[in-house]
Every structure is written in C-alpha cells, then in structure tokens.
Amino acid sequence: MSEELLKQHRDAIDAIDVEILNLLNSRANHAREIGEIKGGGIIYRPEREAQVLRRIQQLNPGPLPNESVARLFREVMSECLALEKPLSIAYLGPEGTFTQLAATKHFGHAAHTVACASVDEAFRLVESRALDYVVAPVENSTEGAVGRTLDLMVSSPLRICGEVVLRIHHHLLRKQEGVAGITRVYAHAQALAQCHEWLNKNLPDSVERVSVASNAEAARLASEDGQAAAIAGQAAAERYGLVKLAENIEDEPNNTTRFLVLGHQQVGATGQDKTSIVVAAPNRPGAVHQLLAPVADNGVSMTKFESRPSRAGLWDYVFFIDMEGHHDDANVATALAGLAERTSFVKVLGSYPQAVL
Ligand SMILES: O=C(O)C(=O)C[C@]1(C(=O)O)C=C[C@@H](O)C=C1
User: Fold this and answer.
1) Catalytic residue numbers, as ranges
2) What are the C-alpha distances in Å from 259 to residues 95, 135, 147, 172, 175?
3) What is the CATH number of domain 3-83?
4) What is the ipTM, given to two decimal places?
5) What are the distances in angstroms from CA 274 to CA 50, 250, 266, 326?
6) Which residue from 111, 116, 237, 269 has the fewest beta carbons nearer than 10 Å?
7) Cα(30) to centroid(ligand 1), Å
8) In angstroms, what is the span from residue 40 Cα to ligand 1's centroid?
C-alpha cells in the first residue's frame, strides 16, 4: 500500500467534502426561500420531488448506481423540506413495521413518523389535520389486497399523493443465538403465509405458530420471551435488539408490498403518473365490461383491478382501478368522463407520480 497515494486521495476527498457541504447548504438556503414564497401553503410537492429524483438518475455519470444517487438525493430533499416545515407521517405501528420503513423510504429520515394503533386511527389523525400524511399498505405480491386500506379510501376525503414499493425480506429473529429450545414463533398472519414453506422445512412441527397484529409486535414479544422466535424485518430486529438466526426466509423471492401516501392535496402531472379510482358497477351480466370500455377506447393502460364487497348490499361490489397517466392527461380525462356516464358512483382517489425509488 502506498501511503503517499492514499494521502493524496484522502486530501482530494477532504477538499470535495467542503465543496459538497457548501453546495448542500446553498441548496438548503434556496429551499428555505421557496418555503417563504409558499407562505402557509402546501410545502411537500410530490410532483417536484419525483422530477428531481428522475432527473438526477438521468444525469448520473456513475460510478455510483442510479439507485444510490436517488437515495442520497431523497435524503437531501428530506432535510431541505424539514427546513421549510417538518412533516409528520402517520403509520400503523408499533415502531419497526414495514409501513414505517416505507414512510422513511418515501419521505426520508427528516420526516417525523408517528406510530398509530390502527390504519383507521392513522387516517383519522390526518383527516383532522393533526398529522400531515398517512402511509398505508394496499397490496402484497404474494398475499393480495389489504382490504381495510381499500375500504377506508372509499369514504375518506384524503387523496392519494404517492406510492411506495418495498421489497419485503423476512428474517427469523431471537433474543439469543441458536434455534435450540424454541417452542413458538410469533409473526403477522401475512408473514406466516409468506414464509410457510421455509417454516415447514426448517422448524419442527412442535413449534407453535402464533399470529400477532404486526411484525414489530412479533419482534417485541420475542424480545421478552427466551423460548420464542419472531418473523420480522430488519427494522424490527434493530428496534428490539434481536439476533438474526436466518435471513430472507420468504418463500417468494420477489415478495413486494405496495403502500400509498395520502394527504389533503391534489398533485400535478409529471409525465409518469398513475390514477387510482373506485367505481360501482350494477350487478348484471356484462356490466363491468361495459363500464371499462372508455378506458380501453382511450388507450389507457390499467395496472390494477380489484373488487371488494361494497357493504351497501349483498353481492354488490365496488372496483378499485389503477391506470397509467394523470387525470389532467387528455386520454385519462376522457376515459374518466366516459366512466362517469356509465355508473352511479365513481370517485377519483388521486393522481400521483409513479414510485421512483
Ligand atoms: O421545489 C420546492 O417546492 C421545494 O420546496 C424544494 C424541494 C427540494 O428540496 O428540492 C423540497 C420539498 C418539496 O417537496 C420539493 C422540493
């Protein structure tokens, strides 16, 4: 190892760090000025954030990968925004859940995440403006839709202003090293289902599988019980000081959960957006097909179609539809107008930028 060469590189890094530091602070000063211009208005601008992150990725000359530069700029914007006004984000607690991880992935570490006892409470706190935004899971690639979030969106005045896609890795966690003496394993029902094969192969039948309210709750219980293990993610492992006995034990390697971000604002178009709606269709043959004709006729791509009981009558359903584009885009606007003519109930849940990170 050449000590001289090492010193040269470190000196160069020291000089660059000073430049980065000064540039970060002048960026922050501009954000603060923008905050003044906005006055008491809406500070968080998802459309602008998506544009900043996409542009950085387009301009990135490497060697840092696009994902890394996007993550770094995500944090830079998070800190700049906090100078304008710190954001508070409601999520289904306790601390260490995947939803908290999704909130931090979307808003960065400067946002203040607030654990709520239920998704209902998280919605209520944002509806009453006690907190700024809510992050809620909406679908998992293995387990399907999260019904409660869908149901809440039907009647909530909140609008979707973003989406977060998170790869879900589950680990087998315990207070101490080794699997000897484990008599029960705590996990959320979805985690138990997602790790079913692994559990069958790797733990004896005598180990009881106990379903609990969240993965973080599973980790908390395991931290208090030497005979128990938990299935949970990295954040919960760190939060409750648990040892990882086995990593990435999910059966499906692409196990992914999609979360929605909801607040009080409408978000402008970015050119790469999604629009989510909920519609009712009469209970007769061909009704859904007819209802959707304007979507296909206007060349709008549907990315999701999910039915839920409407709660209005037996065997009445509402349909949650995601489509590509913004409700201000001409083809989406025409499709929505056509849909509205064919049904008694259509609600635009929001148009928002497609997930960047
Ligand atoms: O452009 C703005 O409106 C800003 O407030 C600046 C900024 C940024 O740091 O780039 C910060 C927060 C907003 O959510 C979007 C962007």
Assistant:
1) 257, 259
2) 17, 6, 13, 24, 30
3) 1.20.59.10
4) 0.99
5) 13, 29, 13, 6
6) 269
7) 9
8) 15
Range 273-353 classified under CATH 3.40.980.10? no
- Taking the CA of residue 34 as reference, the ligand 1 atom at the shortest distance is 5
The CATH code for residues 86-168+256-263 is 3.40.190.10
Residues of the chain with CATH 1.20.59.10: 3-83
- The per-residue pLDDT for range 158-167, each reduced to its tens digit, is 999 999 999 9
CATH 3.40.190.10 in the chain is located at 86-168+256-263, 171-246
Per-residue pLDDT, 119: 93
Ligand 1 centre from 201 Cα, in Å? 49
- Ligand 1 nearest atom to the CA of residue 35, by list position: 5
Query: pLDDT value at position 333?
Result: 98
pTM, two decimals, is 0.92
Q: Are strands 144-145 and 171-174 parallel, antiparallel or unpaired?
A: unpaired
